[in-house]
Design brief:
With 169 residues, the chain is an alpha+beta fold. It contains 6 helices and 9 strands.
Length: 169
């Protein structure tokens, strides 16, 4: 069963590399843990997921939309924006650097897809050579309570995009 409005976001541990403006794109720092309940307790946050970094919709629309909308999201009380993918923290760090997300969006890996599975939002893309991945989605949480869930049921970015999220805040 998928996560729904009114649910408590499952606890989980993601992997990310904190933003360092001095870090070279080829640097390989070690990811650290991002504990969902610990980091988001008492905060309003957006968690959005991409099936794969460096893929067309993720790179051209979904992630740039949230990077551009960061100030607008903050004006609506959002303090954290987290992009997750069923990928390791190293790849998500490289993706963050390549797309210059800076400190606007935390790029976190859910390499074992445990958090994505707990949300009920994983999908099997083995036939496309990608294995288990997340669906494309966006969730708004406020003090760990889910306030909005937008899951894409077709290619493209609509209900999971920054504009859709902003309209629900």
């Amino acid at each position: 069963m998928s996560i729904k409005v009114g649910d408590i976001i499952p606890d989980g541990t993601l992997q990310y590399v904190p933003f360092d403006p001095k870090e070279d794109i080829t640097a390989c720092p070690r990811p650290i843990q991002y504990k969902v309940h610990e980091k988001l307790k008492g905060k309003k946050a957006v968690i959005f997921a991409i099936p794969g970094p460096f893929t067309p919709a993720c790179s051209e629309t979904h992630v740039p939309g949230f990077i551009s909308a960061r100030e607008a999201l903050e004006s609506k009380g959002v303090s954290e924006v987290i992009c997750i993918s069923v990928m390791d923290g190293f790849v998500m760090n490289a993706f963050a650097k390549a797309y210059k997300s800076g400190d606007k969006v935390i790029m976190a890996g859910d390499g074992s897809h445990a958090f994505t599975d707990a949300l009920g939002l994983s999908q099997d893309l083995t036939k496309n050579g990608m294995g288990i991945r997340s669906k494309r989605f966006a969730i708004v949480v406020d003090d760990l309570v889910v306030k909005y869930v937008g899951v894409e049921n077709a290619p493209g970015v609509t209900s999971s995009g920054a504009e859709a999220v902003l309209s629900k805040l």
